[in-house]
Design goal:
With about 240 residues, the chain is α/β, with parallel strands linked by helices. It folds into two domains: about 1-75 and about 155-235, 3-Layer(aba) Sandwich (Rossmann fold), CATH 3.40.50; about 85-155, no CATH class. About 40% of the residues lie in helices and about 25% in strands. It contains ten helices and ten strands. The protein has helices spanning about 40-45, 70-75, 95-100, 105-120, 120-125, 135-150, 165-185, 195-200, 220-225, 225-230; strands at about 1-10, 15-25, 30-35, 55-60, 65, 80, 155-160, 190, 205-210, 210-215. The chain has a six-stranded mixed β-sheet, sandwiched between helices. A hairpin with a 2-residue loop joins strand 1 and strand 2 (about 15-25). The radius of gyration is 17 Å and the shape is globular. The protein binds adenosine-5'-diphosphate and magnesium ion (MG). Magnesium ion binds near residues 40, 41, 83 and 160.
Length: about 240
């Protein structure tokens, strides 16, 4: 379980997160939704040690993460699929996948993980020898998720997986996130501006507004909430 308590983060004098407390359980899909600038990426980057909080704690399976460097946090089994995908565009699809397994030494396990990613994404298998920058936006997002899965994570963090994708591709990405939950039993934290999609698959979700947690509840309850409908769902 991931437990974040009273987390506050600054960039210089800018306070990006203010006293945020959230929990991500060992099973299911969790979501953080909110507008651009709400502090979503800051939250996810603080979990993996890329942003150092001003105060508060982040505990994973009882261990404090805020004192660990990013590579140690990754070794604990937390994988990040970053905002904007950040795939390595000039190398092949397969090389991108290998890059995701850099914490693993056992060649057999790495090969098994490749097969397992190919099973999840047949398109990625078909295109494994292609230079990654030539993939479509949706395929690049699948590759980014596949790369994150290469480390055999115990917790998957996804930062705006639907960003910049056509609506039918967005559907596909969210179906994949559900599949990872149902078939691989990997818990995930999905950060999204696309509130409707994220809430519709989330077991439990948090709403952020300018750095603060303003609402929380099951995905289903938040989808029904008048406040959420008015502010985020264009109702
Ligand atoms: N590297 C940075 N330097 C200064 N301010 C930043 C930096 N990254 C984010 N911010 C600011 O922190 C706030 C939260 O940003 P961010 O976490 O990226 O929000 P979100 O992911 O929800 O769009 C915003 O006001 C943003 O401008
Ligand atoms: Mg962001």
């Amino acid at each position: 379980m991931l437990r974040i308590e009273h987390l506050t983060c600054h960039y210089g004098v800018i306070r990006a997160l203010n006293d945020v407390t959230i929990t991500v359980g060992d099973e299911g899909i969790y979501a953080v939704v909110g507008a651009n600038g709400a502090g979503k990426t800051t939250l996810i980057n603080s979990i993996v040690g890329l942003v150092r909080p001003t105060s508060g704690s982040i505990q994973y399976q009882g261990e404090e993460l805020t004192v660990l460097p990013p590579h140690e946090i990754i070794k604990r089994g937390i994988a990040l699929c970053p905002e904007g995908r950040k795939i390595f565009k000039t190398v092949t699809v397969l090389e991108n996948l290998y890059a995701g397994a850099y914490t693993l030494k056992d060649k057999k396990i790495i090969q098994d993980n490749i097969e397992s990613v190919f099973e999840l994404f047949p398109r990625i298998k078909e295109r494994q020898k292609q230079v990654a920058g030539t993939l479509s936006g949706g395929e690049q997002q699948m590759l980014a998720i596949g790369r994150a899965l290469m480390s055999n994570p115990k917790l998957l963090l996804l930062d705006e997986p639907s960003m910049g994708l056509a609506p039918f591709v967005v559907d596909l990405v969210f179906e994949t996130i559900e599949k990872i939950h149902l078939e691989r039993k990997i818990p995930s934290l999905v950060i999204e501006q696309n509130s409707e999609m994220a809430l519709s698959i989330a077991k439990y979700a948090y709403v952020f507004e300018v750095g603060s947690l303003t609402l929380e509840g099951t995905g289903a309850d938040l989808l029904q909430s008048e406040e959420v409908k008015r502010k985020y769902l264009g109702a």
